[in-house]
C-alpha cells in the first residue's frame, strides 16, 4: 500500500514561521484543516501545535476537532445546506454566511440548542464565488444584526478560489470601508475583517496589506510553504510537509511506443505516437497508486530523472530511463505533492497515512 507521510518537524517550522508573521502585525488567524479530511492522526499533530481556531468545510471534520480538543474555536467555511444546520450549529462556533434565509434558520437552531452562534458575513469582491454584493451589504446587515442568538463578528471575502482573481490592496481597502460604514450606521462593533486565505499572505509580507485587515484563514501556505503569487516556497518554510511513498510493483525494460490499433483508454484519451521513439526501449516501473487516489499532474517526483507517463485506476506508470540508480521491485519512490494532490490522497481510503 502506498503511504502518505506528514513530517512533524517541518509542519512545526511552517506554523512557527506563520505565527511570528501574524503576531508581529497583531493579526488573528485560524488554520484551515479541510486538507486533512478529518484524519485523526494528522489532526492530532495539527492541534499539538497549540492552535486554538480551526476552519473546515466538512461538519464531520469539525466534530472530530471538537472530540480531540473541546476548547478550540471551530469555523464552518462554506454556506451550509439547510438540512445540515442542526449539526453545523452543534459543532461549529462560527460560520461564514451570505444568505439571509440561511442565517434566520441558524438563529432558530441556535435558540433550540441554547447557543449564541457567531457569523462572518461574506462579501463579493470580484472572484464570483460566495458573497453578498457590496451594494446590498448594508440592507443585508440590517436584517441580520438583531436576529436572536446570532452575533456578527466579521466581514470576510474569498479571492482566487474560482476565477483566479487575486487579492489587491484596493479590494481589501474596500472590504475595510464596508466595515466602517456598517459600524457608523448601526453603532455596532464588528471585530474581524477576514481578508481571506493563503493567497493574501504575500500582500502582508510586502507591506501592502491595509491596516483594517485583522484576520486570516490559512491552509495551503501552512502545509506547503508557498507564496501563491509567484508559486514558490517562501524562504524559511518547507514545501514538503507531505510526501507520497509508492512501491514499485513491476519493473521491466519495454518499448517506448505502444504497438497495435490505438483507441481511447478508460479516461477517454488516445495515445500520441512520437515516431522518433520507434525501436527504443526504457525501464518502466508500475507503482501501487492510481487515478482513484490522485491525478498524476499533482505529483512531483523527488528524483528529477523520473518521468510520469500516465496512470490507470489503480496503477501509476513512470519512465526510469536506463535506471542508473538501480531501482528494483519492492523499492519505494518519493513524490512531493501539490495541494489538490494531497487532498485527493487524504480523501482516499486506499492510502496509508503516517507521521514521520
TrEMBL record:
InterPro entries associated with the record: Ala_racemase, Ala_racemase_N, PLP-binding_barrel
Q: Does the keyword Hydrolase apply?
A: no
**Entry keywords, A to Z:** Isomerase, Pyridoxal phosphate
| GO cellular component terms given for this protein | cytosol
Instruction: State the source organism's domain of life.
Output: Bacteria
List GO molecular-function terms, semicolon-separated: alanine racemase activity; pyridoxal phosphate binding
Which intervals hold domain Alanine racemase N-terminal? 42-224
Q: Which cofactor does it need?
A: pyridoxal 5'-phosphate
What is the protein's given name?
Answer: Putative amino acid racemase
Q: Which organism is it from?
A: Algoriphagus aquaeductus
Amino acid at each position: 500500500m502506498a503511504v502518505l507521510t506528514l513530517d512533524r518537524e517541518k509542519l512545526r517550522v511552517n506554523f512557527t514561521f506563520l505565527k511570528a508573521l501574524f503576531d508581529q502585525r497583531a493579526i488573528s488567524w485560524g488554520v484551515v484543516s479541510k486538507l486533512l479530511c478529518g484524519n485523526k492522526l494528522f489532526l492530532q499533530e495539527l492541534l499539538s501545535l497549540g492552535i486554538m481556531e480551526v476552519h473546515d468545510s466538512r461538519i464531520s471534520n469539525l466534530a472530530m476537532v471538537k472530540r480531540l480538543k473541546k476548547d478550540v474555536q471551530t469555523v464552518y467555511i462554506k454556506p451550509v445546506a439547510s438540512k445540515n444546520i442542526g449539526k453545523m450549529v452543534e459543532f461549529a462556533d462560527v460560520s461564514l454566511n451570505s444568505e439571509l434565509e440561511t442565517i434566520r434558520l441558524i438563529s432558530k437552531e441556535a435558540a433550540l440548542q441554547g447557543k449564541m452562534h457567531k457569523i462572518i458575513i461574506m462579501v463579493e469582491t470580484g472572484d464570483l464565488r460566495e458573497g453578498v454584493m457590496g451594494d446590498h451589504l448594508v440592507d443585508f446587515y440590517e436584517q441580520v444584526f438583531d436576529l436572536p442568538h446570532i452575533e456578527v463578528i466579521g466581514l470576510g471575502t474569498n479571492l482566487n478560489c474560482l476565477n483566479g482573481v487575486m487579492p489587491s490592496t484596493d479590494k481589501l481597502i474596500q472590504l475595510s470601508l464596508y466595515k466602517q460604514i456598517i459600524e457608523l450606521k448601526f453603532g455596532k462593533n464588528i471585530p474581524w475583517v477576514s481578508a481571506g486565505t493563503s493567497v493574501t499572505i504575500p500582500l502582508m509580507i510586502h507591506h501592502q496589506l491595509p491596516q483594517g485587515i485583522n484576520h486570516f484563514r490559512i491552509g495551503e501556505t501552512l502545509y506547503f510553504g508557498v507564496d501563491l503569487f509567484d508559486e514558490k516556497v517562501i524562504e524559511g518554510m518547507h514545501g514538503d510537509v507531505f510526501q507520497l511513498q509508492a512501491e514499485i510493483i513491476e519493473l521491466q525494460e519495454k518499448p517506448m511506443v505502444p504497438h497495435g490499433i490505438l483507441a481511447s483508454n478508460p479516461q477517454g484519451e488516445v495515445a500520441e505516437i512520437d515516431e522518433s521513439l520507434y525501436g527504443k526501449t526504457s525501464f518502466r516501473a508500475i507503482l501501487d497508486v492510481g487515478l482513484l487516489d490522485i491525478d498524476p499532474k499533482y505529483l512531483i517526483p523527488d528524483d528529477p530523472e523520473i518521468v510520469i507517463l500516465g496512470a490507470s485506476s489503480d496503477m501509476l506508470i513512470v519512465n526510469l530511463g536506463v535506471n542508473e540508480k538501480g531501482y528494483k521491485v519492492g523499492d519505494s519512490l518519493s513524490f512531493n505533492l501539490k495541494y489538490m494532490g494531497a487532498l485527493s490522497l487524504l480523501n482516499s481510503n486506499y492510502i496509508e497515512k503516517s507521521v514521520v
